[in-house]
Specification:
The complex is a heterotrimer.
Chain A (H helix, E strand, L loop, with lengths): L2 H15 L2 H5 L4 H7 L10 E6 L6 H11 L2 E6 L2 H9 L6 E4 L4 H6 L7 H6 L16 E2 L4 E6 L1 E3 L1 E2 L5 E4 H7 L12 H11 L1 E3 L2 E8 L1 H4 L2 H10 L19 H15 L14 H6 L3 E5 L17 E4 L17 E4 L6 H13 L1 H9 L3 E2 L13 H13 L17 H14 L5 H22 L3
Parallel strand pairs in A: 1-2, 1-3, 10-11
Antiparallel strand pairs in A: 3-13, 4-5, 6-13, 7-14, 8-11, 8-12, 9-10
Helix pairs in contact in A: 4-14, 14-15, 17-18
Chain B lengths: L6 H7 L2 H41 L18 H8 L1 H33 L5 H13 L2 H11 L6 H9 L7 H4 L1 H25 L4 H9 L4 H29 L3 H6 L17 H10 L4 H29 L7
Chain C lengths: L1 H27 L20 H9 L2 H32 L5 H11 L4 H14 L7 H8 L3 H12 L4 H8 L4 H9 L4 H17 L2 H6 L7 H7 L10 H22 L7 H7 L1
Classes of the chains: A alpha+beta, B mainly alpha, C mainly alpha.
Chain lengths: ~450, ~325, ~270
Amino acid sequence: MGMEERVARYGRREVLKRTGVLAAGIAAAPLIAACQTSTTTQKTGKVVVMTDPNEFGAEDVKAIEDATKLKLEVVKSDLTRLYAMYAAGNPPDLFRVQAAGVPQYISRKMVKNLQPYFAASKVLKPDDLAPSNNFYKWDGKVVGKGDLYGMVKDWSPDFTLFAYTKAFDEAGVKVPSDSAPLSYQELHDLATKVNRKSGGKRTYWGFVHSNNDQWIDRTAMNMLAEKGQSLYSADFSTANITGNAEAVKVFKYLYDLAAEGLQQSPVDPSPNWMGADFNNGQIAILQYGYWFSAMAESDTTKGKTVMLPAPTWSGTRRDPTMTATGWVMSAQTKDPDAAWAVFETYMGGAPAVTRAGSGWGVPGLKSLYAKMPTDTAFQKQVQKVLGDELKYSDGVLQFNPYIGEETFSTTWKKHLETALKGQISFDKMLSNIEADVNGAIADGRKIVGQ
Amino acid sequence: MVGTAHALERTAARPRSTWWRRRGTRRALTFYAFISPWLIGFVALGAIPLLLALLMSFTNYDGLNLDYVRFVGADNYARAVNDPDTLHSMQRTLVFVGSTVTLGLVVQLGAALLLDAPVPGRGLFRTLFYLPYVVPVVAGAWIWKIFTDPNGGLLNALIGLVKPEFAMNWIVEQPTTVLVLFTVWALTGGGMVVFLAGLQGIPAELKEAAQIDGAGPVSVLRFITLPLLAPVILFQLVVSLIGAMQIIQQPLLLAPGLLGPGTLPPRDNYLYVVHAYHEIFVNQRFGYGAALLWILFLITLGLTLALVRSSRRWVHYEEAQ
Amino acid sequence: MRTHALRYPALILATAIFSLPTFWVLVTSMKKQSEFAGLRLFPEVPQWVNYQLAVTLADFGRFATNSLLLATSYTVIVVVTSALVGYGFARHRGPLRDQLFIVVLAMMMVPNVVLFVPQFVVFAKLELTNTYWPWILWALGASPLLVFLFRQFFASFPRELGDAAEVDGAGPLRVFLQVFVPNAWPAFAAALIFAYTWVWGDYLYPILLLNDANTTLAVKLSTAYADPHGNPLQTVTMAGVVLYVLPLVIIFFLAQRFIIKGVVTTGLRG
């Protein structure tokens, strides 16, 4: 063992000693000491990527290994595993995240600042980056400013609509124009007309959005952002709901959709996920991004599906992504150059070109936009709407750095069920949600010493 | 049949010095030699994770980087006591555990008794009862979701044959019933195997003798089979109880939407481990979640020991007769 | 024989009701994805292509081999160690025996969720993650549930069984192997079925400890049948499930034949 390694080891041990968990490891000390690896740069030639194997197949692995001459080890995305790898001091070199988690990872110094790499890259040039990549910036105060910490693998303006024309025909309602956006109020009224349920049996849900409410906060954030408002206070220390008339209006709107039985809800769930329900012809209007166009046409919905622009809450068009799924590099990576080589190839090399042509998302680089498919009539219609929407998708959503990605939505779902069952009022529901979210924020702030 | 878990109390009650003098060191060494695989495994592999997991419950650990981890004393335990969701989820868990364990016992034992007899095609029947036990829980949950769906579900369609226009949204109106039935269905195979194995230890001569004495099938079951099967019943009860207390995947998978950290079961199926899971993965309170789980551990231990203790009254032992 | 005549129709009816959801796995495996949760009960045209997709989308053979390797090695070892330990607790005495047995039981009561991270940390420090060694080590350390199972069975054997052999001068291991093991086939069969099923079916530990190349079929089954956005293709999954349970059904069918009356046990009692 070299001197440098030994110093690094002791240095690391000092750091850990201050933490509770190493104190926990006193029993394990001999074991840990025996196996503690150094944190200095090591060129192992292997890069560990934690991602979803469905979107990162054997062809991607091979293409990247051939291009970089590095060995890839793919680990399936899993929150427990990620926690465990960080706890073991051995996080994956690269891992898949969604935008909602980015501010927290950055502020907790868990991910590496990639600005110098982007600045030097010949493949991923700043001018060429799609606006959705701004979700990977956090300057300590807001999302969208500061250095780049990662990049989207692809993205979509996520607030567009997909209409099932058969439901409209049956209701004797005209399918809205695909060149002008509806207001959310018009959307609600339209949904009431195409919604169909009788005798406990559901034919069409009128307007389904937010992925079983998993993204309800993102939907609300975007509506509020039209008026320059946020779900949280400027310093993210509290959720601003009951004290903000506009927020109350937004949540009342979303609540009414569920209460009136237009949207899937805890008291009217579907056994399936909403994309499949649309494919089965059970949803009249569905809010999903461009990526869904790749699968929107099933045997049932083929020729009966049109894409519509994102609705507006107050007349201001705004259609950013709400997921911004992409990759970041862990701060502890042992060989950042190798990890970057993999990152760069995945985001700008052959795999990125293949992804662009698949139609499963808008590419993360503007120069690849032209690769999106335009073969079928539906794809052409989709591209027409998308082209328009891209003009309004430069914005970001201000995710809270102190709480988990699904803290807000899970809290919403919990209290929504009680409210829809009539056990609490709408106002009580909102104040419960606010209290729970504020409790989680307070805990998060306490951990980082604020 | 000789007492099993019962041997536990019997030895404990005996003065230590007596058996030590009688059995001697050699006997003790033999005992430790036999249990050494477990003992070594426990010390080498089990103890450190357990200790870490316990210490975790006294920290503010949130699953992210360790640089911010601090000891917070018993705060997490205090929070658990004051959290209304802890009580709610524990109540729902006890309802679930009570129904699943009892119904499960009846179905498992029933299947084993039916299939212990030399009926034609026994192997096939056994396999059919065993099958749900190996169907992956994800797939099983999907099946039960579409099975109970009010729109195209088979369950309502079948009930509709008898009661036209029947429309029940099972997963909303009867979430715990669906959860219990799903769980019992999925676990029957395991219990049946244990009971089948246990039934093989019951001498056929005893049943025959009783039948010659004029005992009917119910009497044979009541006075011969069940008493002799008691140690195995105790095993199955303990194992089911422990398993049911910790159930998490089934309620999450029956909940609306796809499985993810924020998947939220209906309030009635918001069981204790689901609560802990949410605190850990949704609210990023790993330390608190760990405290909740250690409280569950203590409750489970208490219930199990109470069950073993109560078995004194209903587990019959050959030596005592 | 009267009871027998009544019993059989009851058995068929009970099996039919009980197997309805199982049957539905089969029905669903032949549906189109758009028929999965729709109004139509049976598929319009049986989709045999689902079975083809199930095998090709997941590299079925490779991951089945991984599962087979892992489940077989774990099962063989853990059944042996658990039988030894269970026998020790049932038929031998030593200091702290009862306290230690409570620890065995207690090990079953610690929820996995709280152990995942510490277990990973320990295996990572030992550099055993992404290998099958954790399972081998766990198997060598015996399974608490199987120890409990064996203990209940061995303890239920008549006391005279071991004593007679010991009087004849046989050592403890020989008594175990020659007197107890031959009478415990039902317990061994049950333990084998359990151990195999757990490892074959578990996907939580493989996700935690293995990588995408050496993981098990259960993990692939839960993730591979999906569109590029990770949304599940349930009907293909059902076809995968049908293929996936086949080895377990075969193992069960073979093992359950060993669930037969023990000869010596009854002989001693007669």
